[in-house]
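for the recovery benchmark. tokens below, seq after
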């Protein structure tokens, strides 16, 4: 059973540059809805829980059929003697001949065919609701398994969406590092030309080369993170590829759900909360069923019997009055029937079952405690999500200002350096500041969507996030 304390938070939080993607870039970016449908269809845990649901459905059918009467038929055809003897007899280990016949003065070996045909019906037609309670337990099990499947799908949707956003952010970070490398190369080419013409010191050219190498390393790290994150998404999708790319245009705007600022989320229908609630209901239903086990059962009994024998009814007086003919021996010549009502009550279950009922009640109490704890966690996560949204929006609004200021500073330092009015160190610092500002902007844009995903995860309403795509 899935625990939520870390799963949802881990899946939803970014606040760091994750990366992934495209050693083999896709020609068509993967849409989020397509990724989710692929993941649900392929993920092993979801398919397994789907099979558990089907098993629970069959269990209900089997439990309902337990109310049907037991109908047995039997037939046997034998050949042997029928010597009887006056006196006590005990069976050793359950093995003994059950021949019936007259107790003669001496042993003989007369043998003939015999047969027994039997049909028996035994129906516990009234059990004080025991069968009905067992059916309710099976239905509660099905409901629990269905909600277990639903909460697994919900959590996997959150996991896939989180990995999707991480990949999306990684691609943006890679592009930012690519632009940073391009600026470093332009800066290095200009420095090399000016150093060759004696306009600046040769050390400036060496420092420019070092800055290009640093930008290349940063780009390689970004690509590595992008490929790693693509691999993680591929695992969640159930495919073995890292050639995944996503459309980064998704995060260039603020989600409408955030602009609405709705704080009235109701978590009572949260899929995870429903699953824990169903566990309590199932345990309570099992308590009711265990209590019913102490009641008696009323049964209907019916027997039809036919018997054939090669021994004549006068065999007691005339030991030659028998035939070894097969047809005469197996042909039924006598029949009996029996109908009756029976009461069966194992009084010892009144004592034996009491600890089982109490044990199940304790389990119900424990499951109720877990249910309450999960509800508290979801409330806390919902409050956290609201704070994350506020903080993410603050950074989202501030990030463009930082990029604009850093761009202006870089342009000014670059112009001053070209005219010999500032040092290479100042220009390098401006280049670093611009790269950091672009990185902060990419993360800030993604964190807005991550905060919305966290709110969807905490509120149990995934459409709150999915409808934005």
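predicted aa per position
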């Amino acid at each position: 059973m899935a625990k939520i304390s870390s799963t949802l938070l881990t899946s939803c939080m970014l606040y760091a540059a994750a990366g992934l993607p495209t050693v083999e870039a896709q020609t068509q970016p993967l849409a989020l809805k397509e990724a989710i449908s692929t993941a649900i269809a392929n993920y092993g845990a979801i398919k397994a829980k789907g099979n558990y649901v089907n098993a629970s459905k069959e269990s209900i059918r089997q439990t309902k059929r337990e109310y049907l009467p037991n109908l047995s038929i039997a037939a046997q055809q034998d050949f042997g003697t029928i010597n009887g003897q006056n006196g006590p007899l005990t069976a050793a280990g359950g093995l003994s001949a059950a021949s019936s016949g007259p107790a003669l003065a001496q042993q003989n070996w007369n043998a003939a065919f015999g047969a027994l045909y039997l049909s028996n019906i035994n129906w516990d037609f009234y059990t004080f609701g025991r069968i009905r309670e067992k059916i309710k337990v099976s239905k509660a099990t099905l409901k629990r398994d269905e909600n277990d499947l639903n909460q697994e799908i919900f959590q996997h949707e959150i996991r896939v969406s989180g990995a999707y956003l991480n990949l999306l952010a990684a691609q943006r970070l890679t592009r930012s590092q690519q632009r940073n490398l391009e600026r470093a190369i332009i800066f290095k080419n200009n420095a090399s030309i000016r150093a060759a013409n004696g306009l600046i010191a040769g050390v400036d050219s060496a420092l420019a080369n070092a800055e290009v190498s640093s930008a290349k390393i940063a780009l390689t790290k970004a690509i590595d993170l992008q490929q790693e994150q693509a691999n993680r998404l591929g695992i969640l999708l159930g495919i073995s590829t890292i050639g995944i790319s996503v459309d980064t245009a998704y995060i260039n705007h603020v989600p409408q759900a955030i602009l609405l600022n709705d704080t009235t989320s109701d978590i009572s229908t949260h899929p995870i909360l429903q699953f824990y609630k169903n566990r309590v209901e199932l345990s309570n239903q099992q308590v009711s069923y265990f209590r019913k086990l102490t009641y008696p059962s009323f049964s209907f009994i019916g027997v039809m019997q036919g018997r054939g024998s090669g021994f004549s009814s006068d065999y007691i007086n005339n030991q030659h009055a028998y035939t070894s003919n097969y047809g005469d021996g197996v042909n039924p010549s006598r029949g009996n029937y029996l109908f009756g009502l029976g009461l069966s009550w194992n009084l010892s279950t009144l004592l034996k079952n009491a600890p089982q009922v109490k044990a199940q009640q304790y389990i119900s109490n424990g499951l109720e405690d877990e249910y309450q704890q999960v509800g508290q966690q979801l409330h806390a996560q919902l409050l956290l999500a609201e704070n994350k949204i506020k903080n993410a929006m603050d950074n989202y609004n501030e990030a463009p200002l930082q990029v604009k200021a850093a761009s202006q500073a870089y342009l000014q330092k670059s112009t001053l350096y070209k005219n010999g009015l500032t040092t290479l160190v100042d220009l390098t610092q401006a280049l670093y500041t611009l790269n950091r500002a672009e990185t902060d902007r990419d993360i800030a844009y993604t964190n807005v969507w991550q905060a919305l995903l966290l709110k969807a995860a905490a509120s149990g309403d995934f459409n709150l996030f999915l409808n934005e795509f």
